[in-house]
Amino acid sequence: MIIIREENLQFEFPYDWQVDKYDDKNHFYYNQVSQCQGTKAVDILAWSGTQLFMIEAKDFRGDRIRNKERINKGELIIEVAQKVRDTFAGLYGAHRCFNEELQPFCHPLFTGKHQPVKMVLLLEEDIPPSNDIKSLKQKRSALAKAIRKQLKFLSIHCHVHNSSDLPKHFQWNVRCF
Q1: CA-wise closest residue to 122 among 79, 76, 68, 159
Q2: For the chain, which residues make up each domain, given as ranges?
Q3: Which residues of 140-151 are buried (b: 16+ CB within 10 A; e: fewer)?
Q4: Is residue 80 within a helix (H) or strand (E), and if so which, with residue range?
Q5: What is the rounded CA–CA span in Å between residue 163 and residue 177?
Q6: pLDDT for residue 133 is more than 70
Q7: Quick check: helix, strand or coil at residue 174?
Q8: pTM as predicted
Q9: CA distance 77 to 149
């Protein structure tokens, strides 16, 4: 199993996947791409061999009020869309520079064969009262739809989940600490 830690979240991927903490400080993104002022990046890239996951992790537990405003004002939608857009640009740069470390993630994007790309916003929030669970799911669905609208030109699948409702077919999971 491949384990990636992002703040209070632990991501677990099958051992035969290619996985990268893309926005890490000792990385092509940090050393090359981020030199372009204002560039952003997703947290994790994961290649299963058949599909590419771009994962952005947000742990909003314990800070509900401030983060509720970020969601309601659309700031989170724009932030995630920019990170995905800029990650595509960074991967294109890595492809052009023949960056060996990122080639497993560039290959499905730039080799001509259309491979599925899934953007997953892993959004951990404080657990609402049981009568608000439906409302929470509706908000996540609306978030995914708004992000999808921003990123329509990239032709990717957009998902918003938390650690407890990740689909099994993703084949990876998350633990909260």
Answers
A1: 159
A2: 17-166
A3: beebbebbbebb
A4: helix 75-96
A5: 11
A6: no
A7: strand
A8: 0.93
A9: 10
